Amino acid sequence: MIIGFAIVLAMAVALVVDASAAYLQRSGLDTIADGAALRGADLGATGEETYTEGVPDDRLELTAAAARASVHAYLVDIGAYRKYPGLAYTVALDPTVDSVTVRVRAPLDLPLTVPGSPERASIGATGSAVVATAD
């Protein structure tokens, strides 16, 4: 009975440690996804020249290519690929509301494994931002 209790206790500890690791990675990916969406919305609509030439008076046009390039540059700039090896992302634009949605996903190396659990897990997060000018 003591051996059985020890096994159950060890599995519970492994579960808590793995859940904590997943939570911490998810929090980090949430921050990255939010920042990438903001950068994609900002530079995807206005481009780099906004900061030298000002915001145009007419509606900001969001372009998919510029948003994707801005998101990729942001991820490189902050070192996301080094911190999360295997990081992948998608960028979706909604032109009806001028929004950019970024989904990031990265593999998670579980510190401990519970028998029967997957050897490799993947964690994802989503961030979105809207581009608008004040009237």
Mean pLDDT: 83
Helical content (DSSP H or I, runs of 4+): 40-55%
Shape: elongated
How many helices does DSSP assign? 4
What is the alpha-carbon Rg in Å? Answer: 20 Å
Instruction: Tell me what portion of residues adopts beta-strand conformation.
Output: 15-25%
Helix-strand pattern = HHHHEEE
**How would you classify the helix and strand content by structural class?**
alpha+beta
Number of strands: 3
Q: Span between N and C termini?
A: 72 Å
Largest beta sheet, briefly? 3 strands, antiparallel
Question: How many domains comprise the coordinates?
Answer: 1
Low-confidence sequence ranges: none
- Multimeric status of the protein: single chain
Which strand order spans the largest sheet, edge to edge or round the barrel? 1-2-3
Could you walk me through the main structural features you see in this protein, from its secondary elements to its overall organization?
The chain has a three-stranded antiparallel β-sheet. It has one domain. It contains four helices and three strands. A hairpin with a 4-residue loop joins strand 1 and strand 2. It is elongated. With 135 residues, the protein is an alpha+beta fold. The longest helix is centred in the N-terminal third of the chain and has 45 residues. It comes from Nocardioides luti.
What are the defining features of this structure?
about 140 residues, alpha+beta, three-stranded antiparallel sheet, 3 strands, about 50% helix, elongated, Putative Flp pilus-assembly TadG-like N-terminal domain-containing protein
